[in-house]
Amino acid sequence: MRSTFDLLIRIAGYLLLWVVLMGGPDQLVFGTVTAAIAAAWSLRLLPPGTLRWRPLALIAIAPHFLWQSVRAGIDVARRAFDPRLPLAPGFIVYRPRLPPGTSRNLYTAYTSLLPGTVPCGDEDGGIVYHCLDIGQPIAQQLAAEEARVRNALAPRADGHE
Question: Using one digit for the tens of pLDDT, what is the confidence trace for 99-155?
Fold first, then answer.
């Protein structure tokens, strides 16, 4: 029952994407077949996990995420075009509370758009970030972003992803 539900949800998602990209339902039969094939393969490649989203928290995090993305672009552009701005590049290791797996990968992707930081590896259970200015309170910023991501995710009661 659960696998049928997961398949139907993915078919619906891929079909919606098809309609959005194609601009309408004029090739709906082909889109439905394509969505079904994509959904079946996606279930093999990425089986349903236990990671659950909290939709309202996810909606609440979206404006902050967009603002951070814009800030990151402006910050990098300013630093590129104004040589007087201070740079103190370096690396820090941040150890998130999120377990390894999908939720940590989502967090890493999310934090890749923070101003002046980019995740670039793993080290001893932590995420290595390259920073443009290690004099900034980067660990505190990363912890605040992790709290936002954790709030948007609703892990299963048994603690697994």
Answer: 888 888 889 988 988 878 899 999 998 999 999 889 889 999 999 999 999 888 865
Contact predicate 118/112, CB 8 Å: yes
Q: Which two tokens stand for residue 65?
A: 């995420």
CA distance 148 to 154: 12
**What's the predicted TM-score (pTM) here?**
0.67
Spatial distance between the Cα atoms of 158 and 161, rounded to a whole number of angstroms = 9
Structure tokens at 137: 């309170």
Instruction: Spell out the domain ranges in the chain.
Output: 2-45, 55-152
121 forms bridges with which residues in the sheet? 128
pLDDT digits (tens, 9 = 90+) for 14-47: 998 888 888 767 788 888 999 999 999 988 887 7
